[in-house]
Specification:
- 53% of the residues lie in helices and 20% in strands.
- The protein has 391 residues and is of the alpha+beta class.
- It has 3 domains: 2-105; 109-213, PAS domain (Beta-Lactamase, 2-Layer Sandwich); 218-390, 2-Layer Sandwich (Beta-Lactamase).
- It is rod-shaped and about 130 Å long.
- The relative contact order is 0.06.
- The mean pLDDT is 77.
Length: 391
Amino acid sequence: MIESLASIELSSLALLLVGIGLAFSDIRLSGWVLSWILLSGALLVQWFRSILNYSFEHGGVDPVTYQIASQWMGLGFSLLIVASMYMMREVLRRYSLAEERLRAISAAAQDAVVMLDERGKVAFWNEAGQRIFGYGKQEAQGKKLQELIIPGRLQADFENRFVGFRSTGQGPDIGRTLEHAAVRKDGTEIVTEASISGVSVDGKWHAICIFRDITERKRAQQMLALECEVSRCLTAGDDTPGTIKAIIRSVCENQSWDCGRFLRVDEAGGVLRLVEYWSVADAAIQGFLAAAREFTYGPGVGISGKVWQSGQPLWIPDISKDARALTAIFKAESGVGGAFSFPVKAGGKTMGVFSFSSHEIREPDAQLMSAVQKIADQTGQFLQRTHADAV
């Protein structure tokens, strides 16, 4: 019995010394761990007290010693329990306060704030995340981020970059602001500016990602670059066919159209004739252009003829579903999905029509419609000037 009591005393003393050592050391344990240490100490004291009672009942301890020891152990047990509960309460309070602050800040944020746990799954998703990506908090939580917003072609690379982060909290994207392609719930692809940092929570690395939708800004920059490139072509160009082709190519490459044509008004013949074009190296598109070389448009015939007649741009997302596009060259096998045409005017008179086509179905783009108005005006002035010089 004496040996047992000595062992318990040594254990209690060791626990006390460990607690004192942790208090004055650089080691920082979580509040949960410290509270469990205190609770274990309380249980240990209670166990010691039970042995003391057993010894007293069997005459192993005199009444005076028993009374003193029992009172002190009761006091120690109570203090350890109170300290343990207080520590747990403080931990819960801090967690609750931190979560409330994070919720308030993230709710007011215009950017999507997303926290990923060590498995790469969403642990936090703010209201801006729903506005930008279309997923509500309940839809997003517990899902892997790449399955929600990362385009399929980039998912494997994203997963590989996250592997090292899980164990070290470091990675090639940590602490940097990068442009990332993302996809909304409705399938629309956008451009985001992402800032990623790491934070340790209970010894496990979590990633905090802040996403800003910069799609409109990128489109505006793209439009400005296109306008500048067209202006450069018109300023540097002294050869009309070469300048027109350079403009067509600039629009195609900047806006991902598969081919572009310029049809000039033949006033004597009363028709539009193809004079310049540019395209990607695609068999179906090349076949379409071969047929287009010999084709002329009268007023109101096909997309180009309608643009010539109305003097207004025309955008058709899918030519197979719009009778306005039906001509001999626009067939299902032509490889053309979406088409867009706009007039080139000078002095109030239409001098020609730019027409662009794509394999894909293309919905109308307001920013491009605005940009081509400037391109059309500049091209019209160029054609008027070069025509006057030729005369």
